[in-house]
Each structure stands twice: as structure tokens, then as C-alpha cells.
């Protein structure tokens, strides 16, 4: 997690591999990971979603997606809120990641939410 999100001067390939290892550990061992570690991941993963490097943005997107899949959307509402915030973001990099992270059913939920506001 730290290499992926907190070491921008590290080689992009190393950072991406760290993210893919994180994603696979979440997929395979989420129930064995200490709750405080999961909370740390959830609290810090979005810090790299607007990374200037597309490989890192894509890797972060896969980690977020895996967290949502494993935890279930109803148990990771803060991720869904953060992803919805990206819709209105002026950050070009953050908007680029949005389609990779939003599952199709969430994308339709977002459309319904916007329509109900108008």
C-alpha cells in the first residue's frame, strides 16, 4: 500500500506491482487481514487515484474495485461516495479513472441519482 500510494519517485512498474499484490491479497485473504489494516487501506487508497501516471491510476482503480467486490458496496459506502465525487471533479486524472472503477450497476445508480436531483 505504501509503495503504491506514498512513493511517487519509485519506479512506476514497482508501484504497480505493489498495487497488484495488494489487490490479490484483498481478493484471496481479506478475511484474514486485520480490521485496522483494512481500514488503513480504505482510508488511503483514494490518495493515489489522481496520480499523474496512468498505470498507477489503473492499478489503484483495480484495488478499489476489488475492495468494493469483496466488502460489498453496502459495506463500503464511503468508496461509492468518493467515486461519485469523481464525476464532478475538475481533476482530469481523477475523471479518467472513474469509468474503470464504477461497476455498471453503480453507474446506473449514479444516473438515477442525478436525474432525481433535476
Folded structure, characterized:
This protein is an all-alpha fold and 118 residues long. The protein has one domain. The protein has 7 helices and no strands. The radius of gyration is 14 Å and the shape is globular.
Attribute tags:
globular; 118 residues
Please give the number of β-strands: 0
Mean pLDDT: 84
Distance between the termini: 39 Å
Q: Report the helical percentage.
A: over 70%
Task: Tell me about the largest β-sheet.
Answer: none
SSE-based structural type: mainly alpha
Shape: globular
Sequence stretches where pLDDT stays below 50 over 5 or more residues: none
- One letter per element, helices H and strands E, the order comes to HHHHHHH
Radius of gyration: 14 Å
What is the domain total for the residues?
1
Total number of helices:
7
Which helices and strands, and how do they pair?
Elements: H1 2-6, H2 12-29, H3 35-44, H4 54-71, H5 77-87, H6 92-101, H7 104-117
Summarize the structure.
By secondary structure, the protein is an all-alpha fold. The chain has one domain.
